[in-house]
Specification:
By secondary structure, the protein is an alpha/beta fold. Helices cover about 25% and strands about 20% of the residues. The protein has four helices and four strands. The protein has a four-stranded parallel beta sheet, covered by helices on one side. Helix 2 links the parallel strand 1 and strand 2. The radius of gyration is 14 Å and the shape is globular. The relative contact order is 0.17.
C-alpha cells in the first residue's frame, strides 16, 4: 500500500496507528520498507514490536520523530520516545486525544 503512494514525506499515527507507524519507521530505516523522513506518534500504546522484531530495534532510530501524549491518558506517557535518537516530545493535560480539548492554548501549541 505505501509503495503505491511513494514517495512519502512522513507518517502520522494515532493510538494503534502510531504503533504501526513505529514499525514502518523501523522498517524504513533498515531498508526493508518504503523510505520516509519523519514520523508523528499521537497517544501510542507501549511498543510490542520491539520484542516481536528485535532486529529492527537493535539501535535507536535516527528518523525525526514527534511524540504526543496526554497526562490523563490511561496508557503510559510517550512510550515510543526512547526508541529514537533525538525525539521531540509534548505532553498535554487531556486524555487519549491527539489534540487536547480542555485548553485552546495547549491545542495551539500542538
Amino acid at each position: 500500500m505505501l509503495q503505491r503512494h511513494a514517495p512519502l514525506d512522513g507518517l502520522l499515527g494515532f493510538s494503534q496507528g502510531a504503533s504501526v507507524a513505529n514499525l514502518l519507521a523501523a522498517q524504513a530505516e533498515s531498508g526493508q520498507g518504503v523510505p520516509f523522513s519523519f514520523v508523528v506518534h499521537l497517544c501510542p500504546p507501549s511498543p510490542g514490536w520491539v520484542s516481536q522484531c528485535p532486529e529492527l530495534f537493535a539501535s535507536k532510530l535516527s528518523m525525526h520523530s514527534l511524540h504526543v501524549s496526554g497526562t490523563q491518558d490511561p496508557r503510559p506517557q510517550l512510550p515510543l520516545a526512547n526508541l529514537y535518537e533525538d525525539p521531540v516530545t509534548l505532553l498535554h493535560s487531556d486524555g487519549h486525544k491527539p489534540i487536547p480539548a480542555k485548553s485552546s492554548e495547549e491545542a495551539d501549541s500542538i
